[in-house]
Design a protein that fits this description.
Length: about 290
């Protein structure tokens, strides 16, 4: 009998250690995304800098909240909106270049930044939208941007919505364009677990609790959207497992002034491509300061 009990105890301990290690690894990855480089962009045929797209940009490093961040600022004309593009999780400002096209004819300037924990940004990791809004507010102040339109993809979309609520940006932000926003952090982390065939029920809630212990504090995105005082445009795809359409609809319903374009067949990383007409339409509307 004793060998059986000992074997069961050994298996239980091993299972507990494996479970704990998996939970810790999921939380660590969430807070420390894999860094994408120029090689990542070249392998996918993406432009690696503004010059590759025929754009003249100032490549600068700014200090925000005590850390350093690489920024491209592209000045286009004397008047117009200042567009600040925020990339998604585990991406960088190179990825944001893929979304500049509809802004080129109408923007005064374009600003692209590597968010904390991404690209070449200094610092230890990301807070997944908890502290980033204050950083974005400081960036806008430093660069003296006005009539700002915040354009974000996925995590960047959540940060854009939350950043528009910063008190110092109340008179500077003119609108927000959220591409593939999600309602809560459980959504993208759960999607990654599903993609890896990992047990969501056993791992997701403990991993989220661990991120909270590390300082992540996020209200539902719909709650943030409900407090917006500027127009909100949303692009969401019908085939996006990372940011489901139902969550985009909830966010749109909560905002005082919002337009949602549902892109048929759109997934997480192609909404501005197959939904290019809708993206350009929202850009034009937000540049005018109102959405239809």
């Amino acid at each position: 009998m004793e060998p059986i009990v000992g074997g069961a105890a050994f298996l239980a301990t091993s299972a507990l250690l494996a479970w704990g290690g998996s939970v810790a690894a999921i939380a660590w990855e969430a807070l420390h995304p894999p860094r994408r480089s120029v090689g990542w962009a070249l392998a996918r045929g993406f432009a690696c800098d503004p010059a590759a797209m025929g754009l003249d940009a100032a490549d600068t490093r700014v200090t925000l909240l005590g850390s350093q961040f690489d920024v491209w600022k592209i000045d286009l004309r004397a008047e117009g909106v200042d567009v600040l593009l925020l990339h998604g999780y585990a991406r960088n400002r190179i990825d944001s270049l893929r979304r500049v096209q509809p802004w080129l004819p109408i923007a005064r300037s374009l600003t692209l930044i590597d968010l904390p924990g991404h690209g070449d940004a200094s610092g230890k990791g990301t807070t997944l939208g908890t502290n980033e809004p204050k950083l974005i507010a400081e960036l806008v102040e430093q660069l003296q941007l006005t009539r700002v339109i915040l354009v974000g993809h996925s995590l960047g979309a959540v940060i854009a919505i939350r950043s528009a609520l910063e008190p110092t940006l109340a008179t500077r932000v003119q609108g927000v364009l959220a591409i593939a926003p999600y309602e809560q952090l459980a959504t993208p982390i759960g999607a990654r677990l599903d993609a890896r065939a990992m047990p969501r029920a056993a791992l997701l809630r403990p991993a989220l609790a661990l991120t909270r212990l590390c300082g992540v504090r996020l209200e539902p995105t719909s709650a943030s959207a409900a407090r917006l005082s500027v127009p909100l445009g949303i692009l969401a795809g019908t085939r996006d497992p990372t940011s489901p359409l139902d969550e985009a609809r909830r966010i749109a319903r909560s905002a005082p002034s919002a337009t949602l374009h549902e892109i048929e067949g759109g997934s997480h990383d192609d909404l501005w491509i197959i939904g290019g007409a809708a993206y350009a339409s929202l850009a034009q509307q937000l540049a005018r300061g109102k959405i239809d």
